[in-house]
Design goal:
This protein is of the alpha/beta class and 333 residues long. It is 31% helix and 11% strand. The protein is built from ten helices and ten strands. The strands form three sheets. A six-stranded parallel β-sheet has the order 2-1-3-5-7-8, covered by helices on one side.
Length: 333
């Protein structure tokens, strides 16, 4: 009997508390000065989902290493949204036409042979100007081709060196060339410095980071690539496929892990060692044997055994014409 009374008292008290909460709770929480705002102590945020990063933290090495390139561009004046009408000053081109200025080489700065070829080609063209006041486009004298920190051609302290350039202007009307970025095995597209509003001519650029009608996608070429096309080719119309021993040739390293591994690991499917020769080696990096798979021994042996001659100037012009004909014919189909 006593237990029933205790249960009845507890049930009655619980019902009273519930009624008190629903009838008086909202009224007691409502403030006459703040209206019906359920969170009056919260400040208004224009973009509550975006992480706040103090400006001084964006200058640290830890931020440059650990933060993705896309996140960096989001944090730097909307450079990821750059287009020709928003990040390019056309008034510089209206004065003297299309002129390209190459920064003079600074004392003590080393430049790779590949980047020197690019600069020499620009300086030897009719668009070059030695007067920055007449320039429409600016090209750095600092080698930005290889941004792999493990590479001997990697230029250190590039961020501070670029920021100290008097004409940098947050990269406006500047063109930056890059072939390699990131470090094995991830090979992210982090260049190690903020490109700002500069245009980027880059090899193997992802669709996520490519800014349409602003950036330039260029092929990945080796240091042995000739500066000029050489003699005229002999490819004639409708000679497709061309009369060559090899239709497709590739010889390079096979990344066992990281970005690019899926693509190069699939090359063996079309390799026939006759007219399609695709040779890869697993010997990449100091610890490649830790990631060794069942095909590595065979691939390595075939890679060392078969010699693939390097293309001549005539071959490059030949392939360029072949590519043009294939595109032209596909458009007319």
């Amino acid at each position: 009997m006593q237990a029933k009374k205790r249960y009845l008292i507890l049930s009655s008290a619980g019902v009273c508390l519930i009624l008190l909460f629903y009838l008086q709770g909202p009224a007691s929480r409502r403030s006459p000065n703040r209206g019906d705002d359920p969170h009056p102590h919260w400040p208004p945020f224009s973009d509550p989902l975006r992480a706040f990063i103090p400006w001084d933290q964006t200058q640290t090495e830890d931020y440059n290493v650990r933060t993705s390139p896309r996140h960096k561009r989001d944090d730097n004046s909307g450079a990821h949204k750059c287009r020709m009408d928003s990040c390019f000053d056309f008034s510089l081109c209206k004065k003297n036409g299309f002129r390209v200025y190459v920064y003079p080489q600074q004392k003590g700065e080393k430049i790779s042979e590949s980047y020197q070829n690019i600069l020499s080609s620009i300086e030897g063209s009719r668009f070059y100007t030695s007067d920055p006041g007449q320039a429409c486009v600016f090209v750095l004298n600092l080698d930005t081709l290889d941004r792999d920190q493990l590479s001997p051609q990697y230029v250190h302290n590039l961020r501070s060196k670029i920021q100290n350039l008097n004409l940098w202007n947050n990269g406006r009307n500047h063109l930056i060339f890059n072939l390699y970025s990131g470090t094995w095995p991830d090979y992210t597209e982090d260049l190690g410095f903020d490109i700002g509003q500069a245009m980027l001519a880059k090899a193997s650029i992802s669709t996520e980071n490519f800014r349409p009608h602003f950036d330039i996608s260029i092929p990945l070429f080796s240091k042995d690539h000739p500066r000029t096309g050489g003699e005229r080719g002999f490819l004639k119309y409708n000679t497709i496929p061309p009369f060559r021993k090899y239709v497709l040739v590739f010889k390079g390293k096979r990344y066992l892990t990281g970005i690019g591994s899926d693509t190069r690991n699939a090359l063996y499917h079309i390799h026939n060692a006759e007219d399609v020769v695709l040779l890869t080696t697993c010997k990449h990096g100091k610890d490649w044997q830790k990631h060794k798979d069942a095909r590595c021994d065979k691939d390595n042996a075939e890679y060392d055994r078969i010699y693939v001659p390097k293309p001549s100037c005539h071959d490059y012009r030949h392939l360029k014409k072949l590519n043009w004909l294939i595109i032209n014919q596909s458009m007319n189909m």
